Amino acid sequence: MLVRELSKWFENKIKGGDGMNILETIKVPRIEDREVREHWRKDWTPVLDEESIVIESKDGFSEKQEALVLLGKRKTRLMNRVYNTHFDEYEIFVNYADGKVYYFDNRKYRKVIDDNKIYLVDHLTGETKMVYDGEFFYPTKTVWLMESSPRLSRTHRLGIEWRANAFRGDPIYIKDHQLIAVLYFGQDALDAVEEDHTLVINHRNLNKHDNRPENLELCTVEENKEHYWVMKPILDEKKAEFSRLVVRVLQQIFGAGVQPIEV
Question: I need a labelling partner for 33 at 20 to 30 A (CA). Which of 144, 183, 202, 237 fits?
Fold first, then answer.
């Protein structure tokens, strides 16, 4: 987003003679999957069949874990790597390809699938809106198809809130990485969603918003700490290089007085 906005703002100033926009060559720092495989000792192992799931409730499960059990049991593959599930008032779409989660209020809308496209139909008016075109989802704010919110924790983890109501005394908060881990890995992931966990859901490339199954793994608390100290220097160097690159571009525009920034 930063690169795109800067690119628009400076477009007329930094186009070279060949018409190439310098900022378009800048990549926001991220650790690639191949770099994780090169530096982290734990290999990522796919499940044998990502369409199936074996998951059961156990004595002592929290309300959140029970909700995740139902979400897992109701998982259905729709198309490509898009999966559908539901719990109470929300029906959910999960796109394994990019790790994104979307949802809608099934009290207001129903889904219709036609020719690899997903539509929502308003129960009262019959109005229809396409929300998935076979490649991309098209969310809106507060109505129709919604994106998971980043307000669920102080670290801005994406997730969904089921608010308290007459049948549910307390709200339930399920973060995207917890939902996707349970849908993909099954029973073992249920242990990693509460405070007294023995396992944690680790983001292999340190990007907490990259919730692709390939970027998630179940590991112990000790392994999670070890992973952080192995991968953090790699990300720090990428951030430093990103800062130097942006400075070089800005210096071409404003002169040599621009200094590197913290990213």
Answer: 183
Element (H, E) at 31: none
> Domain residues of the chain, as ranges?
63-199
The per-residue pLDDT for range 174-200, each reduced to its tens digit, is 999 999 999 999 999 998 988 777 899
What is the pTM (predicted TM-score) of this model? 0.84
Single-letter code of the amino acid located at 28: V
Length, in residues, of the chain:
263
Q: Which helix (H) or strand (E) holds 216?
A: strand 216-220
- Residue that is written with structure tokens 């704010």 in the block: 141
Query: Are 251 and 56 a contacting pair, CB within 8 Å?
Result: no
Q: How many helices (H) and strands (E) does the chain have?
A: 5, 12
Longest CA–CA span in the chain (Å) reads 69
